[in-house]
Amino acid sequence: xxxxxxxxxxxxxxxxxxxxxxxxxxxxxxxxxxxxxxxxxxxxxxxxxxxxxxxxxxxxxxxxxxxxxxxxxxxxxxxxxxxxxxxxxxxxxxxxxxxxxxxxxxxxxxxxxxxxxxxxxxxxxxxxxxxxxxxxxxxxxxxxxxxxxxxxxxxxxxxxxxxxxxxxxxxxxxxxxxxxxxxxxxxxxxxxxxxxxxxxxxxxxxxxxxxxxxxxxxxxxxxxxxxxxxxxxxxxxxxxxxxxxxxxxxx
Length: 251
Known about the structure:
The chain has 10 helices and 8 strands.
């Protein structure tokens, strides 16, 4: 038997979006017991969001939208509501923290937690409004279906293009140092230069990325991977300088 305070603590952890497994491991309470307590609770009235189509912090939303289009997914909870999950590599702890902060700014008050996976973490949060805030949610893989922004989303991206670009680069992009050799004064010398890459199988998502680059004056080219044009490259000096000023490498 468990007292009321123990039950409330366990259910509060579940309400934060934690899995039954993780709550069970932390509290020592069986998953079956926690599930039975959930079943006995009367559903709480849904709290209205002031405007679910317009996020609380639009700069954070533009960044989170880029992360979602690159490495995010939305999945339904068996008892209602949805989980937003963003996959982030362990190599970039700064990115993981920024992702957590962005979710908290877009939906103040929601629980945000990190689930460790093999070589990466899933930054996750539960809310009934995630499909409203990210209407690109749908069955199947993103590159196998049409992806387009709603007018209110496009207005946010138009007002905050660099945050959107930064989210896309932080999800499916990188800043690298390329090198080549040149003959200078009769000697072959190594020449290094920075470059940004963005890779995504979705023609639509790549189109959103390049359209936004055009708006901020960044020149880009398409590089084919085999016969597939999955890579967008930014290599011109002035454009790389713009990207460095507003995006920068992952950290």
